[in-house]
Each structure stands twice: as structure tokens, then as C-alpha cells.
Design a protein that fits this description.
Structural class: alpha/beta
CATH class of the largest domain: Alpha Beta
Radius of gyration: 31 Å
CATH topology of the largest domain: Beta-lactamase
Number of strands: 25
Strand content: 15-25%
Length: 836
């Protein structure tokens, strides 16, 4: 981390005053990166109604924290503060200014000042009011008041400390927000060189601009944007939609008070003006802000920060040395030796020479190689070889699939399978309606999950269902064959059909047993009411012990939709034979398992099962939330192809692809790269696992993806899904016992004539690097050896040639926690979809 403090310029002020334009104009004069300081622009899919910068505008300079949160989730000021502080702490270039741009003063204060600042903006009238209520109610009454308006904050103070309770109530009254939002805010002020500016316009001009902006939002599609959010399951009461503009659209659409379009627009304008007035009051209460008119703000800001930027630029290139101030006579321990510019250049030159020698070896004759290595701390290129040559990446394709899922759901996201009910649940536990098992593509669904849903339904009071039990598998299309939707019919590796709702990868086990006396029994596992068994009359016991069994199992779909499994042939006596078959109706089989679990758990379901989409009016009874981190760890560590294809289709469904889901998924991945500002010229992704040989990606695109994800709030969670060298996943054995063990986090790729490795490495000096190596040619085993050599060299790199051992350093973001349970037995890991 650079020792010079980062320069942060806050551009605050009321909505529509021109903050974004000021930031973009500053970017034309000095190197800047923009950090979102708007509590609603952090949400994905809320673009028009939040006046979010356009994609073209965000391409002028790096932008952070825009569209990073799933609108189904809630963001607190404390979470936002942590994200901003992470960006400041990892900001590598002291000559680049961070612009904190937005009108949410509470978020800015939480990020820069910490918990100790809250209450600074509390007005005297609010303090006087709470003091009078304290005298009237007493300490106990004041605490009960807090319990009523903010239970989470009250639970945080079990000792009922009157001073803290009073501060919480003052905050709630002053900000019209729960105090519990800021309880996780860092305690101390951030270590940065901060300049505070607030942009203003004359009141009449601001009001006119607000009116024009609101009208433009309705003309540009805020109604359609709101409908799209609702269609994705975002509820009107969720924080993302409790936003000026969207609230009025919801009323226009009939949620709550019904408004005409004209009335809704008028209320939108009035509410925005009132909000702008509250913002002015907030920023004026903080005397650190310098108020600048939008027309002259750019020149005045440049004048204020010019000296700071010049000094930091000189420090960054070594022309100015900052001397520590003497404090007392106590001798401090010497600082670690910092390599000179020559030493650094020499060490990097030696590294480049080594990398060149590896890729110039005889093993790479006739091979195509794309390679790039990047220093995340300095944000500088270290080495590259044909970085923009698009090659077949194999399973490093999964980096794009999992990154798109994280970008859609955010840190802490989950794949949710729901049990919904339509109708009235009576006090006696009888549901006058239907139940719906709603799938989203979670490939890890199991019988245990069905049992959990049934148990939760029982706990919610359900005892009898008068209607039917339906499987809703409408989340994405039913083109389940990877070869079909990828357009790649080359038989690389078989994967089960990809459907929105299935258990056990869409398969059942048929167990056929023959007793010594000649009785034949058939059992289907898991137990499901969707499958019936037919034992053909020709099935008989084979009396001749030496003759091989001639059993066969087939399936047909009956008129009622259930699957009939027919067993024919002659089993050997006193033997059991098991067949694993992929069923033609996986959703119906899944809901049949649930029906059997409900009945076993004491809930009557007698009307039968079927397949049908749940109506929008249905309500959640219970649900399974599969953490995205758990799911993506299987995809990336074990390189699980079926799980990756399910996630690929999930991404398509998440972005509205109920039909042509694979095409929507491909577009969603490209849109994710655009949002992250990752160039992808010529990139082709036909599937989500990398089994398609027609996929084309270059090393530069993979490195740019890794760099961009690194800066996201979900970055830490993402890299923990990668294999850890010498510890787990597909590089568990490859780098064990080397200096790279525990310090390389990567995704592998293997196909015939293809090998790839991409991820992160920690050097001996504690620097974090990212890299991608893609090789296409006749000798993939040799390419893997080369990948190992480069990984070991990266993890063993130091600017000081005398350093040969790793020492604990605080600069690295990458951490492998020993004993964290990420490892597993060797036979658990599949071999990356390799044909070899």
C-alpha cells in the first residue's frame, strides 16, 4: 500500500445540481476515479429513476460502487462505509484523485468520519425535543420508544444506556432513517487527504431542472424499469423501490393509492424538490463543505487541489521525499529497506526474462499462447505475450459465469428455491389453494432440501392442502441440452440436461433386486410420487447362476405427466442391480419428492401434482437459500461443468430470459463486462462451463476481469471460490510443497489441445498480482508444467534478491485461512472436464 495519503474530493449537494457533470469535467483535467455516494445508484437495475451515469459517461474514467447491489437486498451506511474504505485503502496511485460523488450525506459521513461523527448534524431543536421526552418518559420510557421505532438498535443496547439511547433517537428523528443502519460503521475517521465541496444552483434554476429531469424520467421509461424490477421479484416494500420516483410509479401502477400519470409525475416533482431541500440543510450543517456554483465549480476545485495533486504526483515518482517528524528521543525500529527504482526495474526485468524463457521452450513449438501478468498494487503491467489473441480457454470460462452471477446478486447473494402458496391458510392449518415449488436452477437441490421445505411448512402451521402441488420450472427455458444451446455438437463431456428445477442432476436410481426364491422387487430412489414402476411380465429370475443378467430399464411419460419406469429382462438370483437414469420430467419428479416429504411430515396433500407457473399473487411459505459463495466454490474449485451450466442459465433467467435463455445469458455476461469496463473484443462464449471448443477469450480480457472484480464489494468472496494451490480444488496437488502453496488462487482449464490457468498470486513482498495463461496446441501436459513454473515464480518474486522466505505482511488482500474447511478428500474433485 502506498504510504502517501489518498486524495479524496467530496462532491456533494442537492439532487439535480450537476454533481455528475462536475465530476466528468474534472476527469478531463486530472486523473480521477469516481466513487458512488448515492444510496440508490449502488443498486443494479435502477438506472433511469436514479439518474445514474450512463455507460458512455462511466467509460471516461474508472467508476466504483455503481450497480453493485442486487435490488432485492438492503444496504446500510455501515456496509457502504466499509466498501469505500476498502477502495481508499487499496488505492495504489497517489497521483489519482478519488471523487466521492453523490447526495447521500449520511453515507459520505459514515465512510469518511466513522461512527464518532454521527450526531454532528443533529439540530438543537431535535436535541431539545428528545431531552424533553426523556424528562417526561424517564430512561425506561425512552428505551421503550427506541424499541418501537428501531428494534435492532434497541437490541444493540441491552444495558439501556440512556446517553446512547438518546443519541439513537436523535439520529432517527433528524435523518428519518433507522439508527441500526450505521451501527457497523467504522469507529475512526479515514486516513486520507479529504476536500469537501457542495454544488448548488439558484433555487428557481434547481426547481426547473428537477421538473425537467422528472419529466424526462417518465418519458425515458421509468415505468417500464419499475415493471421490470417487479417482474424480477423485487417487492414494493423493499429498500430499493422505496425511492422517490419509483414510489410514485408504483402508485400509478396501482400499488397503494391509485394515481393518474399526471398526478404521479407531479408528486414525483414535489417529492424531489422537498428531498433537495433536506439535502441542502444536511450539507449546510457541516461547515467543512465549500459551496460552489455548478457553473464555476470545476475551476474552483482544480485551484483548491492543484498543489496537493502536484506534490502527490512527485512523491509517486520519487522526486520528493517526505521526512518523518521527530517526536522524542526514543529510537524507533528501522523501516524495511525499500528497493530503489533501479532495483525494482532490475527485478522485474529478470522476471520478464524468466517468463519469456518458459514460453519460448521447445514445448511451445506449434502452440498459440496468450499471457498477461499484472501488479494489482501498482496497477502496472508486468509481462505479456499475445495478450489480445483470442484462444479456446476451456474451464477458465467459468470465471465469467461466476463473475456475472456475483455482479447480479452481490456479496452474500443466494440462489433461492421457494415453496409458495396461493390461497388462504385457515387458522386450522388448511390451505384453500395450491402449493408451488418454484425453481431457479439450483443444481445442488437434494432430498434433504425438500425435507427442510416440508418441515418449515409444518412449522408455519400448514396441515392440509386442498389444492394441487405444482412444480414451477418457468425461470428459464427448457432447452436443456448443452450441445443445442451452445451450438457445439462435438462430444467433449456429457452433462445432464439443464432445467430450472431438478434434484440429483435430474436423475433417479432404480434398484432391482432378486431374492433367492425368485421374487423380483424394484425401488426408485429418491421416493417420489411422480414415478410409477411397471415390471414387465417377461421379468423373471435367471435360474442359471453363471448367465449374465439381461435386465434393462426404460421410461415413458404417461398422460397425466408422471414417468413410468419399465423393467424388463432376467436378473440373477440373490443379486441387486442399480440403474441411474436421467428422467424426462425432472421438475415433476422433484415436486413428487416434496409431496412424499410433506405427507411423511404430517401434511395432507391429496389432489395430486403437476407443472404450472406460480401466480404473482402467491406468497412465500418457506424457501431454500443456497449461498452463492458455496455454489461458486464448487463451480470454480472443482470445475463442475453441470453446476456451471446451471449457473449460466440462472444468469440468463435472472436477466429476464424465460425463452432463449442461453442467448440472454451470453448478453448478460457481456453487459457485466461492460459495466466493469472490461474490454472484450472478439470474445465468444457459447456456454457457461468452457466445454465448447468454439469459445474464444484472450488473456487480457481474463486479467481485466480479475482486476475489475478485485475492486468490487464481492471481490473477496469471489477469490475465495477459486482453488488454493496445494490446498484444494484442481490445483491441490499441482503446486503442493512449493512456495506457491496457499498463495496462488486460480481457476484451471483443460481440454484436448488446451490448457489454461488464471487467478491471483501473492509475492514474497506481499504484493497481489493477477494473471492469465491460455495455451492451445498439441502438448497440454507440458503447458501445465509451464503454468506451474510461472505460478511458483510469481509467488516467489521479491524486489530484494536476498529475500527467499515469506514473511507476514499486511499489504496483501489475499488470505487463505488454515483449517477453514476448504479442503476435501482427493476423490471429491473432478478433473476439470478434461478429455485426457
Amino acid at each position: 500500500m502506498n504510504s502517501n495519503p489518498t486524495t479524496v474530493v467530496v462532491i456533494g449537494g442537492p439532487t439535480a445540481a450537476g454533481k455528475t457533470q462536475v465530476a466528468l469535467q474534472l476527469a478531463q483535467h486530472v486523473p480521477v476515479e469516481v466513487v458512488c455516494a448515492d444510496s440508490r445508484q449502488v443498486y443494479a437495475m435502477l438506472d433511469i429513476g436514479t439518474a445514474k451515469p450512463t455507460l458512455q459517461e462511466m467509460q471516461t474514467c474508472p467508476h466504483h460502487l455503481f450497480s453493485v447491489v442486487d435490488p432485492a437486498n438492503t444496504v446500510t451506511a455501515g456496509e457502504y462505509a466499509t466498501w469505500v474504505r476498502t477502495i481508499i485503502a487499496t488505492h495504489a496511485d497517489p497521483a489519482t484523485v478519488l471523487l466521492l460523488v453523490g447526495g447521500t450525506g449520511l453515507y459520505i459521513q459514515a465512510a469518511l468520519d466513522g461512527l464518532s461523527s454521527h450526531g454532528r448534524n443533529t439540530s438543537q431543536s431535535t436535541r431539545d425535543f428528545v431531552n424533553s421526552e426523556r424528562e417526561r418518559l424517564g430512561a425506561t420510557g425512552l428505551y421503550q420508544w427506541l424499541q418501537k421505532v428501531d428494534p435492532a438498535a434497541a437490541a444493540h443496547y441491552p444495558d439501556k444506556n440512556p446517553r446512547r439511547v438518546q443519541r439513537a433517537l436523535e439520529f432517527i428523528l433528524e435523518n428519518d432513517r433507522p439508527f441500526s443502519e450505521i451501527l457497523e460503521t467504522p469507529a475512526d475517521a479515514v486516513q486520507a487527504n479529504v476536500h469537501y465541496f457542495s454544488i448548488y444552483l439558484d433555487t428557481s434554476e434547481l426547481n426547473k431542472r428537477i421538473e425537467d429531469r422528472c419529466n424526462a424520467m417518465w418519458n425515458d421509461g421509468i415505468v417500464e424499469e419499475t415493471q421490470n424490477l417487479l417482474s424480477h421479484g423485487i417487492q414494493p416494500q423493499q429498500q430499493s423501490l422505496r425511492t422517490i420516483g419509483y414510489e410514485q410509479v408504483l402508485q400509478y401502477l396501482g400499488y397503494g393509492e391509485q394515481l393518474s400519470r399526471t398526478d404521479a409525475i407531479e408528486r414525483h416533482i414535489v417529492a424531489t424538490r422537498q428531498y433537495a431541500k433536506r439535502q441542502r440543510t444536511w450539507f449546510r450543517s457541516d461547515t467543512r463543505y465549500q459551496w460552489l456554483h455548478a457553473a464555476t465549480a470545476v475551476s474552483q476545485i482544480l485551484h483548491n487541489i492543484a498543489v496537493t495533486v502536484c506534490v502527490l504526483a512527485l512523491l509517486a515518482i520519487g522526486h520528493v521525499t517526505a521526512a518523518p517528524a521527530a517526536t522524542d528521543s526514543t529510537r524507533l525500529p528501522p523501516l524495511p529497506a525499500i528497493p530503489t527504482q533501479f532495483d525494482s526495474a532490475q527485478a522485474i526485468a529478470l522476471f520478464k526474462k524468466y517468463a519469456d524463457s518458459v514460453l519460448n521452450s521447445d514445448a511451445f513449438k506449434g502452440a498459440d499462447v496468450s499471457c498477461q501478468i499484472w501488479n494489482l498494487r501498482t496497477n502496472k503491467l508486468l509481462f505479456e505475450r499475445n495478450p489480445t489473441q483470442n484462444l479456446t480457454p476451456a474451464s477458465t470460462t467459468k470465471l465469467f459465469t461466476t463473475a456475472a452471477a456475483y455482479h447480479a446478486l452481490g456479496s452474500g447473494g443466494a440462489l433461492v428455491t421457494e415453496l409458495r402458496m396461493n390461497g388462504r391458510l385457515n387458522s386450522d392449518g388448511v390451505l384453500d389453494g395450491d402449493l408451488y415449488l418454484v425453481g431457479c436452477g439450483d443444481a445442488m437441490l437434494s432430498v434433504n432440501d425438500m425435507e427442510y421445505l416440508a418441515d418449515q411448512a409444518y412449522r408455519m402451521g400448514l396441515r392440509k392442502v386442498r389444492g394441487k402441488l405444482y412444480a414451477d420450472d418457468s425461470f428459464f427455458d427448457h432447452v436443456g441440452n448443452r450441445a443445442v444451446y451452445s451450438g457445439d455438437f462435438e462430444d467433449v463431456q456429457h452433462t445432464a440436461p439443464v432445467y430450472p428445477l431438478s434434484l440429483n442432476e435430474g436423475s433417479v436410481s432404480v434398484v432391482v433386486s432378486a431374492s433367492r426364491k425368485g421374487t423380483v422387487s424394484v425401488q426408485v430412489l429418491p421416493n417420489t410420487t411422480a414415478v410409477v414402476v411397471q415390471v414387465a411380465p417377461a421379468v423373471r429370475q435367471n435360474r442359471r447362476r453363471k448367465k449374465r443378467s439381461s435386465l434393462s430399464v426404460s421410461q415413458t411419460v404417461l398422460k397425466d405427466g408422471r414417468v413410468q419406469i419399465t423393467v424388463t429382462g432376467a436378473p440373477r438370483p440373490n443379486r441387486t442391480q442399480t440403474f441411474h437414469i436421467t428422467v424426462q420430467k425432472p421438475a415433476l419428479v422433484a415436486v413428487g419428492v416434496l409431496e412424499s416429504r410433506l405427507q411423511a411430515g404430517g401434511i395432507q396433500v391429496n389432489a395430486g401434482i403437476g407443472v404450472k407457473a406460480a401466480p404473482q399473487s402467491s406468497r412465500i411459505l418457506s424457501q431454500i437459500q443456497r449461498p452463492l459463495s458455496e455454489y461458486c466454490s464448487v463451480v470454480n474449485k472443482r470445475s463442475h461443468n453441470f453446476y456451471a451450466e446451471q449457473l449460466f442459465k440462472f444468469v440468463g433467467g435472472r436477466y429476464g430470459g424465460r425463452t432463449n435463455t442461453a442467448d440472454v445469458a451470453r448478453k448478460a455476461i457481456l453487459a457485466t463486462l461492460d459495466s466493469l469496463r472490461v474490454p472484450h473484443r472478439g470474445m465468444i462464449l457459447n456456454d457457461g462451463s468452457g466445454l465448447s471448443r468454439r469459445n474464444r477469450v484472450c488473456a487480457a480480457t481474463e486479467v481485466d476481469l480479475l482486476k475489475a472484480v478485485w475492486k468490487q464489494p464481492y471481490g473477496t468472496e469471489f477469490y475465495h471460490t477459486l482453488s488454493v494451490a496445494g490446498v484444494d480444488g484442481t490445483i491441490r496437488r499441482r503446486l503442493a510443497g512449493t512456495i506457491a502453496a496457499e498463495y496462488v488462487f486460480a481457476k484451471t482449464g483443460t481440454l484436448r489441445n488446451t490448457s489454461s490457468l488464471a487467478g491471483y498470486a501473492v509475492t514474497l513482498d506481499g504484493e497481489d498480482w493477477c494473471f492469465s495463461i491460455i495455451s492451445n496446441g498439441p502438448n497440454p501436459s507440458a503447458y501445465k508444467k509451464a503454468e506451474n513454473l510461472l505460478a511458483i515464480r510469481m509467488a516467489g518474486f521479491s524486489y530484494n534478491p536476498l529475500v527467499t522466505e515469506r514473511t507476514p505482511v499486511s499489504g496483501s488482500k489475499l488470505r487463505y485461512e488454515r483449517g477453514s474447511g476448504t479442503g476435501s478428500s482427493e476423490d471429491e474433485f473432478i478433473d476439470d472436464g478434461s478429455e485426457e
